[in-house]
Amino acid sequence: MAKLIITAAITGSVHIPTMSDYLPLTPDQIIEDAVKAHAAGAAIAHIHVRLPENGMPSADPALFREVCGKIKARCDIILLPTTGGGANQTIEEKLVPIKDLKPEMCSFDPAPFNMGMFQLAERFTQFKYDWEKMYLEYCKNFTFAPSFAADIEYAKTFLETGTKPEFEMYELGHIGYVTWLMEQDLIQKPPHLQFVFGPMVGWMPPSVKHLVQMYEEAVDRLGAGNFTWSVAAAGRHQIPLAAVGMALGAPNIRVGLEDSLYAGKGKMATSSAEQVKMAVNVAREMSLEIATPDEARQILGLKGIDKVNY
Predict the structure, then answer these.
(1) What pTM was estimated for this model as a whole?
(2) Of 237, 269, 241, 242, nearest to 253 (Cα)?
(3) Which end of the chain is more exposed for a tag (fewer CB within 10 A), N or C?
(4) Which of 254, 298, 216 is closest to 41 using CA atoms?
(5) Is the domain defined by 5-303 classed in CATH 3.20.20.70?
(6) Which residue has the higher pLDDT, 262 or 95?
(7) At what angle do helices 61-74 and 27-40 cross, to 10 degrees?
(8) Of the candidates 302, 289, 260, 295, the residue with the CA atom closest to the CA atom of residue 4
(9) What's the angle, vertex CA 297, arms to CA 293 and CA 298, rounded to 5?
(10) What is d(CA 105, CA 158) in angstroms, rounded to the nearest whole number?
């Protein structure tokens, strides 16, 4: 088996400040969390940014540049900014990170899906900031619904910048979008697929059965050995499903505060590094070696840190 790549998803755009005092919000907090995750064994950091004054998800190019530039100055971790952004961002806003920074990797959501974030709002009676409840409930009336035309625009942008997409796969049919883009010669092969699981309505159920189904569907459509893949599961399913991915030979698993705010039952995680360490411990018990950033670059076929624009 190849070495295991661990991704740390630092802050995301689903969790709100009310949920955890440890969620990174400011540029300095996001930078510090990513650097700690690298020291713990993460080869990739998935980057979102937030408004420092209130923690609201943002697509501000200045924030992305500050965060990515300062992380790069401190370590050689692969930075994978989001093009998913926040629930209320336009396609133009979501493409800002890739067009401006030309990173080694970026996320790519090619297919429509729902995120039942409104369910999270029901857990709280008070919020730290006025925007939080409205933001979570926005998804009651909104579907992430990229058009085929938008997919083409995204894919061309990735090719133009030499950035490798990480395709976020929320259900079986989403693999067909990747197949279609490959047929249009809009993807540099092999594609990298991330199978995403979560307990909220609209997400793929986090189970061994569904992970195996996703992998087998990718093999059926793309062919064994013709893609790389990753496992990302939310909440309490984060580490268990990551372990299943390791057992199945996944080259990449994802942990981090974007996906779960806990480091064990009832224990709030104080950093993404805590969850990286948990994944490292599981991997070592399986006799898996952890990939360094440079080894991950080789496994995933990335252009290299010297070719980014930050």
Answers:
(1) 0.96
(2) 242
(3) N
(4) 254
(5) yes
(6) 262
(7) 40
(8) 289
(9) 120
(10) 9
